[in-house]
Amino acid sequence: MAGVGFRQWAKAIAKGRGSGLSALVSGSRAASSVTKDSLPGPFPKTPEERAAAAKKYNLRIEDYEPYPDNGEGYGDYPKLPDRSQHERDPWYQWDHPDLRRNWGEPMHWDFDMYIRNRVDTSPTPVPWSSMWKQLCGFIGFMLFMFYVGEKFPSYQPVAPKQYPYNNLYLERGGDPEKQPEEVNNYEI
Amino acid sequence: MSRIWSAPLATRPKTLDPNEYFNLSPDQRRAEDARAALRANLKRTYQLQLNNPHRAELIEDPALTRWVYARANPYPHFKATKKTSLLGAMFGVVPLFVLYYVFKTNRDNKEERIKAGTLERKFSLSS
């Protein structure tokens, strides 16, 4: 296998067709049956181009809606509804069940975002704005309270440790003959 | 006919939508038929390839190829408009300068304080 490739390469170099990469790939052929006009192209301007693009993407002409032509790099790729794969029927026999997609179906531009491990656009039990307010309210409140706690700390009162036996006079190496000074750690 | 309850956390599937069955104009029905015809054609192509006993290679999906190609090659369709230039500047140029400025001033401040001996050199790893 490698020998055949080497011979092709040597022949191409010997023929002297171009230099560098073009000589190396002159003996190659397409690995897939993809042709140039089945790939995405520029934004369709005429109705014929629109019809051709709709056919290319397996969409009805009325359903085909390209992204607006404002230079953001979409070309003629169709604009499909922004619904995630979570919302697709779980009981239908899809060709690819984990992706909930059939073979040949046009893929959303953000398909890899809308898979079932990622973004979910299913309806929520509570409106989005309400959820957002609850979250922000809670976090804001907790941050505020922690800030207030930093500014006005409140601890148990503490004092230096008090030792018995005249402040441990003998244990600290005091003279046993001498009388230590009386230490009173209490008040009556 | 049993009632169809919609789940609170899921969209109703198209096949269980009552609007699918009632009050449909002939145009809508024709549109649905055309869509179903396209889908059925794709299904048929796929099933023929899938169940072909002589097939020895993977079934290539042209929709997937188109998607990958479109995502990987937006450059020919790029135009420098106000919006795209603004986005490019905001995400590509501004962070460069802002981060440089922030880090430089922070580091210089710290260096000054170290030289003056006012910075508390703790042993903790985080600061």
From TrEMBL, chain A:
InterPro entries linked to this entry: NDUFB8, Ndufb8_metazoa
Record keywords, A-Z: Electron transport, Membrane, Mitochondrion, Mitochondrion inner membrane, Respiratory chain, Transit peptide, Transmembrane, Transmembrane helix, Transport
Domain of life: Eukaryota
Pfam family, one: NDUF_B8
Keyword Cytoplasm: no
GO biological process: mitochondrial electron transport, NADH to ubiquinone
Protein's membrane topology: Single-pass membrane protein
Subunit structure of this chain's protein: Complex I is composed of 45 different subunits.
Assigned protein family: Belongs to the complex I NDUFB8 subunit family.
Protein name, entry field: NADH dehydrogenase [ubiquinone] 1 beta subcomplex subunit 8, mitochondrial
Gene source species: Cyprinodon variegatus
TrEMBL record, chain B:
Topology term for the membrane: Single-pass membrane protein
Function noted in UniProt: Accessory subunit of the mitochondrial membrane respiratory chain NADH dehydrogenase (Complex I), that is believed not to be involved in catalysis. Complex I functions in the transfer of electrons from NADH to the respiratory chain. The immediate electron acceptor for the enzyme is believed to be ubiquinone.
Compartment list: Mitochondrion inner membrane
Any one of the GO CC terms: mitochondrial inner membrane
Protein name: NADH dehydrogenase [ubiquinone] 1 beta subcomplex subunit 4
Protein species of origin: Cyprinodon variegatus (Sheepshead minnow)
Keywords tagged on the record: Electron transport, Membrane, Mitochondrion, Mitochondrion inner membrane, Respiratory chain, Transmembrane, Transmembrane helix, Transport
Coiled coil: none
InterPro entries linked: NADH_UbQ_OxRdtase_NDUFB4_su
